[in-house]
Write a structure and sequence with these properties.
The chain has one domain. The longest helix is centred in the middle third of the chain and has 11 residues. The chain is built from two helices and six strands. The strands form two sheets. A three-stranded antiparallel sheet has the order 1-6-3. By secondary structure, the protein is an alpha+beta fold.
Length: 92
Amino acid sequence: MKEEVQEGQRGKLIIGGDINLIRNIDEKLGGNYFSDPSRAVLEELIKEHKLFDIPPSNGKYTWSNKKTGTHNIKERLDRILIQENIAATFPQ
């Protein structure tokens, strides 16, 4: 569903939370990587609203199954997406 917004009436957008979706293979360590149609929806949202994906400050991954060895899986599932114009006001 796409909503038309008059020029100058668009608000600022910040999305944060447990998205439960990796954007690409670099956000997964271990386990199987599979195709997910929701990935395209997320990428379109990011592109359409000019969102910047803030990287985690505590390492690359935000979730782990806490297993050891070859059974260990880590993924980046949590994220904060912020419009580029907002992010530009916070240089650090």
